Amino acid sequence: MKEFLKDGIKKIGLDISDEKIDNLMEYLKLLIEYNSHTNLTAIRDEEGIIEKHFLDSLLIMKYMRITEGKAIDIGTGAGFPGMVLAICNPQIKFTLIDSVGKKINFLKQVIEKLGLSNVEAINVRAEEFINEKNRETYDIGLCRGVSKLNIILEYVIPFLKVNGRFLPQKMEGTNEEKDGENALKVLNSKIEKIYIDELPYIKDKRVIIDIIKLNKTNKKYPRANGVPSKKPL
After folding, report:
1. What is the DSSP letter of 202?
2. Most buried one in 25, 95, 150, 187, CB count within 10 A?
3. For 172-194, what is the HEC assignment?
């Protein structure tokens, strides 16, 4: 499986050290073991997890454009893309948040087992986590497959610095960027570029939207729990 992962990493155009690949393999082992008794992912075969979770997450690394700073992954689940990117970018500080306790408990085990000092996992909702101390302090925002763009923008953008970037990943054909136009305007952000990439073996397409924050966000955002999904911007 290690060679399958290494070959996939080369196919998507990245160069990652053997030490980091070994850590990814240990993460895979922990995930499969934990998933045998606690449901974290519906994908259970090793090749499927490597390609549809690990390599899928690593596609984002190609567009991050920072070598240090802070990143936040909202709705991280079992750590995708945040934990994968944290393992491969030890110089960037990652905050992984999710409202599901069992997923955060798993990630804390991964952090401990791998001795990761650049990542924290917190069981909390984004609208409960944001405060005066962490608002507009992150360089990169991440969110993979959680909610529609016009909803998730409201949760992520308030955490970003001015000129910070949000890199949501979507399946091809959702065209969510059009529905997000008003939210982008309200949150003082814009789409800089849209990248179309693909998984190396099964060739499924992935859309990565490069969004830049242009100005400060009104402190009334994000609104209270449930409001963004019921009344999207």
Report:
1. T
2. 187
3. CCCCHHHHCHHHHHHCCEEEEEE
Model confidence over 6-44: pLDDT tens digits? 999 999 999 999 999 999 999 999 999 999 998 888 888
Residue by residue, DSSP assigns 87-138 as: HH-TTEEEEEEES-HHHHHHHHHHHHHHT-SSEEEEES-HHHH--TTTTT-E
The closest of 172, 179, 168 to 196, measured between CA atoms, is 172
Q: How high is the pLDDT of residue 50? A: 96
Asked if residue 171 has pLDDT above 90, the reply is no
Q: Provide the token pair at 157.
A: 């953008």
Q: Distance from CA of residue 127 to its chain's centroid?
A: 17
| Residue matched to tokens 């911007």 | 233
**Distance (Å, whole) CA 78 – CA 75:** 9
CA dist 64 and 185 (Å) reads 23
Beta-strand relationship, 189-198 and 92-98:
unpaired
Number of Cβ atoms within 10 Å of the Cβ of 37 = 6
Residues in the chain: 233
pLDDT-based confidence at 178, cuts 50/70/90? confident
